[in-house]
Amino acid sequence: MAYDVLKLKIKDKKLNYQKLAKELRISESGLNKKINGKNYFTQSEIYQLKELLELSNNELIEIFF
Asked: Model confidence over 15-59: pLDDT tens digits?
């Protein structure tokens, strides 16, 4: 997984972890663990991130697969 790309996309959209965690309906610490590769994003979270961050299909594949 390309966590650095994900972090860049979050920054580009001017989102902080608190706002993003709220959108995903998870805790900030849970989000932090997922962004740093300690836990995995669920399929529904990946879909929500695709929408929130306006990720292309190629970016989605690069980041999560």
From this structure: 999 999 999 999 999 999 999 999 999 999 999 999 999 999 999
Distance CA 20, CA 5 (A): 16
Measured distance between the N- and C-terminal CA atoms of the chain, rounded to whole angstroms = 6
Rounded to an integer, what distance in angstroms lies between the CA atom of residue 7 and that of residue 10?
5
Q: What is the DSSP letter of 42?
A: P
Give the number of other CB atoms < 10 A from CB of residue 10: 19
Of the candidates 34, 1, 32, which has an alpha carbon nearest to the alpha carbon of residue 16? 32
CATH superfamily membership of 3-64: lambda repressor-like DNA-binding domains (1.10.260.40)
Encoding tokens for residue 52? 């929130």
